[in-house]
Write a structure and sequence with these properties.
Length: about 190
């Protein structure tokens, strides 16, 4: 289930063959990459992606949970719309910065990297993003709000608690003026868990 660093690099290099050479790359972010990108980027804009929505549809068995007690992390699932941020990586830094992104996002090969069109204040931008693979064994989309809250309230992985992941995401969305009622509801419900 864990992807080797070599396989991750091969995946990144294959994907980069589809980009316009010598150009900056925009990344559409919707979860932890918004509040903890861990990359060197030159510019950030708010963006709207149509055709996908932010969803707790990925079991986290490394970063925010374990194989024995998985957590939940966000992915883009089909349908609806998603407000997020687009980050621009300068052309001379694309290789190195996207290596960091791939090592972080593709560790279990849950996500499918793809190019999307994102509406921003400066018009439509072509951006890289990571969408859910509904065929992956860690894909889940039938949990109730109470089930999600119970999981998020108690799971913990290599990067910290699942609760912290949710709280940071909610805080960033509020900071950006993005309304996300489901995440707000889950956030409210986890307050009842000790």
């Amino acid at each position: 289930m864990i992807v080797s660093k070599e396989e991750i690099t091969i995946s990144k290099n294959q994907f980069l063959q589809t980009r316009d050479p010598g150009q900056s790359v925009w990344i559409f972010t919707y979860g932890s990459l918004m509040w903890n990108p861990q990359i060197d980027y030159a510019e950030s804009l708010s963006g709207l992606l149509e055709g996908y929505h932010r969803s707790f549809c990925c079991w986290s068995v490394i970063y925010r949970g374990t194989f024995e007690k998985p957590g939940l992390v966000l992915a883009l699932d089909k349908g609806g719309t998603c407000y997020g941020q687009v980050l621009r990586i300068e052309s001379d830094k694309v290789e190195d910065e996207l290596q960091k992104v791939w090592e972080r996002e593709m560790i279990t090969a849950f996500y499918i990297p793809c190019w999307v069109s994102v509406q921003t204040t400066v018009g439509k931008l072509k951006a890289l993003t990571f969408i859910a693979d509904p065929k992956h064994k860690t894909y889940i989309n039938q949990l109730t709000v109470d089930e999600m809250a119970a999981c998020i309230a108690t799971a913990k992985g290599q990067r910290g608690t699942n609760r912290e992941y949710l709280e940071n995401t909610v805080e960033q969305l509020r900071h950006l003026g993005i309304s996300e009622p489901l995440l707000e509801e889950i956030h409210a419900r986890i307050q009842s868990f000790s």
